[in-house]
Every structure is written in C-alpha cells, then in structure tokens.
Write a structure and sequence with these properties.
The chain is mainly alpha-helical. It has ten helices and no strands. Helix 4 packs antiparallel against helix 6 and helix 6 packs antiparallel against helix 7. The radius of gyration is 18 Å and the shape is elongated.
C-alpha cells in the first residue's frame, strides 16, 4: 500500500479518538494558563529569566503532549486494533512511520500555537520586565517550544510501542519528568543536562550555562526520541500483533 492512504487512515484515527484532541486541548489550556500565572508572579523578581517565565507553562503542559503520543500508539493494542491495522498495511515499518507522522504534525502545530499564546499571555503579566527580550529570542523560544513538545510526544509514542501499554508509559514518564529528572539533576550536576526533558528545555531560556546550548540541547532530545522510536519499531517487528 502507498504511504498516502496509510497517512489518511492514521490521521482519521487521531481525529476520531476523543481522548487525543482532548489531550491537545489540555496542552494548550494548561501551558497558557500556567505561563500567564508565571508572568504575574515572577514579574517582581529581578533575577528571573523572562523567556523561560513566559514559556514555563510547558513544564506541566508537556504531560498532555506525552499523553497524546502515548495514547495514539497504545490505542492500537486494545481489542485487536493492531491486527486490523497490520492486515491493511502488512509493512510494519511503513505503518509505524505513518503513525509517527500523524502524531508529529498536530503536536508541532498545536505546540507552536500554544507557545505563541503562552508568550503573549505571560508578556501581558510581565509588563516592562519582558522588554529586554529581543525578537530573535522570542522567535527561538516559540519555534523551539513547538519542536520540543513534538519531540516529547514522539518520545512517548516510541516508549508506548516498546512497552505496548499507555498506562505503563505514562507511569514511567510522568514521574520521571515531574520528579525524577529534578532529583537526578540535583545529584548528578551537568549530566542532567543530557536528559531528554532537561536538554530540550534549554531552548526556552534566554540565558543558559553548561555544555549544551538551545539547539544542541534540542538535538539531544531528538536523539532520545529517535532511540525511543527505533526501539518501538524493533518491538513492533519482533512481537506478534
């Protein structure tokens, strides 16, 4: 089967499974709301990073992106759905590539819109404190934020394919992102800069120290994502539907 009809089929699944558009809506709402609150609460702190404060809603909001990627893949393991998908598309690699593509596209689009809305909402609260941000820094923050959310959604998709369970994926990634990553960061110093979430979040900062910069940090997250997708593809090929 040609790739185009496979993409259309997988896109139809994304549109019709209610939890998936709901996850993207939650991504937008949570990120913008928390960024707006950060803009109001941190405006009086002279040592804050205005770009990171404007986009800090991504920290809780990324859980919705992770949920979107995990659920998009894990839904295939319910009630024999994967058997039907592979009966229509026997080439498992082509099917998984189409699945990844239809996860990446809406995650990136919603991520970019979310980042722009979060930046505008936070700037309203920051007022003059955000005046030092250049146009280039703001563009980098918005574009980088969209790419970061897309990569985290794909990272979760790869892990879900590897574990064959959305619950197991979220049980692993949510505590890691919200708790373990910070604990490891405090204990290991610069090694934490190479964790998938820590590395990618450097693109959200106006100033940064350490080995990685904004785009090199995002590249590290991309490598983690590629490894997760390859592992998921390997498990898909090795395991019966």
């Amino acid at each position: 089967m040609e790739l185009t009809p496979v993409l259309r089929s997988e896109w139809l699944k994304i549109r019709t499974l209610r939890s998936l558009p709901g996850a993207l809506l939650a991504l937008f709402a949570a990120t913008v709301a928390f960024s707006a609150l950060a803009g109001v609460s941190e405006a009086s702190d002279p040592g804050f990073d205005p770009l990171f404060a404007s986009l800090s809603g991504v920290i809780p909001g990324q859980i919705a992106a992770v949920s979107f990627g995990a659920m998009a893949v894990s839904s295939e393991f319910h009630q024999g759905a994967l058997r039907l998908s592979l009966a229509a598309v026997p080439c498992r690699g082509r099917w998984f590539a189409a699945k990844a593509a239809v996860i990446a596209a809406p995650a990136l689009l919603v991520g970019l819109v979310t980042a722009l809305a979060a930046l505008l909402a936070a700037r309203a609260g920051l007022g003059r404190a955000a005046g030092g941000l250049s146009t280039g820094e703001q563009v980098r923050g918005v574009v980088g934020c969209g790419l970061y959310l897309m990569l985290m959604a794909l990272f979760a998709a790869g892990i879900a394919a590897l574990l064959r369970s959305g619950v197991a994926t979220l049980s692993l990634l949510v505590p890691f992102i919200l708790v373990v990553s910070f604990v490891i960061g405090d204990a290991t110093g610069t090694l934490a800069d190479f964790l998938p979430d820590k590395a990618g979040q450097l693109v959200l900062r106006e100033t940064y120290d350490g080995t990685l910069g904004p785009w090199s940090g995002l590249a590290v997250t991309a490598l983690w994502t590629a490894a997760a997708l390859l592992a998921g593809a390997w498990r898909l090929r090795r395991r019966d539907a």
